[in-house]
Structure formats: C-alpha cells, structure tokens
Amino acid sequence: MARILVIEDEPALQKVLDYNLRQAGHEVLLAGQGGEGVRLAVDQRPDLVLLDLMLPDIPGTEVCRALQQSDGTQRIPVMIVSARGDEVDRIVGFELGAVDYVVKPFSVRELVLRVQAVLRRAKSSGDGERSIEFGCLRIDEGAHRVWVEREEVELTLLEFKLLVALYEARERVQTRTALLDGVWGIDVSITTRTVDTHVKRLRDKLRRAGDYIQTVRGIGYRFAASPDLPESRSA
C-alpha cells in the first residue's frame, strides 16, 4: 500500500480518484488547493503526488517547482493530471520534474495502472541504493544527491534518474526511445525531443562532468567508459 496525495480542485474528480485509489489498496490524501497540497506533502511525505495544473490559488507548475526545491519532498514522484494536453504543456511538466503526465479526460483504469507503474519504478530505484564515484562525479542514490568536484548539484527527480540510467549503461549506446521507456516508463505521449532537452539541461547542471555524457549521432547517448574526461561530447 502507498500513500498518495491528490491535489485536485474538482470535487467530483476528487471522489473518483479517492474511491478508485482506495480500491487499489492505497491510502489517499486530498487537497483542493496548491498551497494546501504543498503543506500536506511536507507534513505527510506521500509516496506519490497526483497534481492538477489549474488550481484556484497557485498554478500546479508552482506546486511542482516547490516540491522539487524542498529537501523533504524532492524525492516524491509527481504525476501531473491535467486538461492541458498540448505537447508544450507536457514537456514543461517533465522539465519541472514530473515523472508522468496524464491528460483529462482519462481512463480511470489506465490511471491506476500508471500509478502502479510509477510506484514500482520508485521502489526498484530505492532497492539498489548505493554510492557511485566516477572521476569528478559522485552520486548518492539513497539520498538522491549528486556532487561534481565536491560541489553539490541540484537535480530534479527525472534528471537524477536519467543520470543514473546513463551511468548504469555506460559504454552502451542508449537510444532516445530506450531512455523514454527506462526513465519515463510507460507511454507518456511525448516525442523523443524531450530526451534531448533533458540531456542538455543535465549536462549544463553537471558542468565539467557533463562531458561524461556523449552524443552518438543519429542514435542517442552513452556514458563514458572511463572517468578520464573526453575531449568532445560527440562520438
């Protein structure tokens, strides 16, 4: 059983989500406003947040940003559930750190399955917690923290998962589609361009260690085999 926080201002949809998630065996917390949702997330530490973008007090994007910037909540996966279905909206959601994006109206059965998939991925990523040192890069999987040359780097949950996925497959080329499947999970209805966007942001944040992530033209990306920094990001 997981504790799931639903931040949604439509009472009818609140009831539908509350009923179906409880039927699936989960504990459900409900918030009708963004500020209330952030406070509940900080106080109750849910295992997952379902977040609407159009809330009466503050935009859901600000809620997502606040959760990502707080030490106590930045590891909580956020699934956006919104009527905004344009690709640009989905990309913005993922750039803010959401792990999945479901467009309204949706199949309740599909939503529950996607919730289960996110929870499984979160659990499996926590089962193998370890500390990784690779040249100037250090990754603490248990704490979801990253350092470059002993200076801590702030990453979103998705950026962290992307970094670990690339590192674990070092020396092997990862296609954009494979990264979408492995990092984002089941079909998220976005193009592979979002992978390029996240890789660029990740490289920029990692500064010198960003050169460990190499582009394989026309295919995807791979993590360097050696901690000796390559001269170029292209292969």
TrEMBL record:
<feature type="DNA-binding region" description="OmpR/PhoB-type">
    <location>
        <begin position="129"/>
        <end position="225"/>
    </location>
</feature>
<feature type="domain" description="OmpR/PhoB-type">
    <location>
        <begin position="129"/>
        <end position="225"/>
    </location>
</feature>
<feature type="modified residue" description="4-aspartylphosphate">
    <location>
        <position position="52"/>
    </location>
</feature>
<feature type="domain" description="Response regulatory">
    <location>
        <begin position="3"/>
        <end position="119"/>
    </location>
</feature>
<dbReference type="GO" id="GO:0006355">
    <property type="term" value="P:regulation of DNA-templated transcription"/>
</dbReference>
<protein>
    <submittedName>
        <fullName>DNA-binding response regulator</fullName>
    </submittedName>
</protein>
<dbReference type="GO" id="GO:0032993">
    <property type="term" value="C:protein-DNA complex"/>
</dbReference>
<dbReference type="InterPro" id="IPR011006">
    <property type="entry name" value="CheY-like_superfamily"/>
</dbReference>
<dbReference type="InterPro" id="IPR001789">
    <property type="entry name" value="Sig_transdc_resp-reg_receiver"/>
</dbReference>
<keyword id="KW-0805">Transcription regulation</keyword>
<dbReference type="GO" id="GO:0000156">
    <property type="term" value="F:phosphorelay response regulator activity"/>
</dbReference>
<dbReference type="Pfam" id="PF00072">
    <property type="entry name" value="Response_reg"/>
</dbReference>
<dbReference type="Pfam" id="PF00486">
    <property type="entry name" value="Trans_reg_C"/>
</dbReference>
<dbReference type="GO" id="GO:0005829">
    <property type="term" value="C:cytosol"/>
</dbReference>
<dbReference type="InterPro" id="IPR039420">
    <property type="entry name" value="WalR-like"/>
</dbReference>
<keyword id="KW-0238">DNA-binding</keyword>
<keyword id="KW-0902">Two-component regulatory system</keyword>
<dbReference type="InterPro" id="IPR016032">
    <property type="entry name" value="Sig_transdc_resp-reg_C-effctor"/>
</dbReference>
<dbReference type="InterPro" id="IPR036388">
    <property type="entry name" value="WH-like_DNA-bd_sf"/>
</dbReference>
<dbReference type="GO" id="GO:0000976">
    <property type="term" value="F:transcription cis-regulatory region binding"/>
</dbReference>
<keyword id="KW-0597">Phosphoprotein</keyword>
<dbReference type="InterPro" id="IPR001867">
    <property type="entry name" value="OmpR/PhoB-type_DNA-bd"/>
</dbReference>
<keyword id="KW-0804">Transcription</keyword>
